[in-house]
Amino acid sequence: MSGLLIFQVVAIPLLCFAAARDVATRLIPDTVSIVILIAGLVARLAEGWAEAGVSLLVGCALFAALLPLAARGALGGGDVKLISAMAAGLAPADTWTFIVATVFAGGVLGLAYILGRYVVPQTRVVGGGTLLRRVMAVEAWRVRRRGPLPYAVAIAVGGILVLLSLPRA
């Protein structure tokens, strides 16, 4: 099994999990970022030590660049860790593509939330309801109150698009 395939098999389900968890709780578990980081470094090591080192440096630089945004509340700390972990598993050119795809997905997500304020009806769950219905009711409440975006959704979309577009060796 190639390093890239290992990274895809590990990262794609974890990105989906991180997105779902961010929607439900606005938290991304640290273990998700750690496992993605390890799988990405293993994939890059399959290409060589120099490639892995450069990717790790790019991930660290991205972390350092995004940390002030998290400190100011513009981005969540879990989002910064998830983006940096993905970057450490990608070649620098692919990291740029990942960032661009994530920004575009974030724009679509933001637009959906802006429009959602006018479209999402008042939703109340009486007597429990299904998990999906409860999550939708909470999300509708967050949209109307202009709550923070679950940016892991955009990160997951950007990451999955890049991972699926990488050429197989």
Provide a compact summary of the structure.
With 169 residues, the chain is mainly α. It has helices at 3-25, 30-45, 49-71, 77-88, 92-119, 131-144, 152-165.
Q: Could you list some keywords that capture this structure?
A:
mainly alpha; single chain; Preflagellin_Peptidase; elongated; 7 helices; 169 residues; Prepilin peptidase; membrane
Architecture blueprint of SSEs:
Elements lengths: L2 H23 L4 H16 L3 H23 L5 H12 L3 H28 L11 H14 L7 H14 L4
Helix pairs in contact: 1-2, 1-7, 2-3, 2-4, 3-4, 4-5, 5-7
Structure description:
There is one protein chain. With 169 residues, this protein is mainly α. It contains seven helices and no strands. The chain has helices at 3-25, 30-45, 49-71, 77-88, 92-119, 131-144, 152-165. Helix 4 (77-88) runs antiparallel to helix 5.
Helices, by number, come to 7
Strand portion: under 5%
- Into how many domains do the coordinates divide? 1
Helix content: over 70%
The biggest sheet, with number of strands, parallel, antiparallel or mixed sense and barrel status, is: none
Measure the end-to-end span.
11 Å
Secondary-structure-based class equals mainly alpha
* Order of helix and strand elements from N to C terminus: HHHHHHH
Number of strands: 0
Mean pLDDT: 89
User: Which residue ranges are poorly predicted, with pLDDT under 50 across at least 5 consecutive positions?
Assistant: none
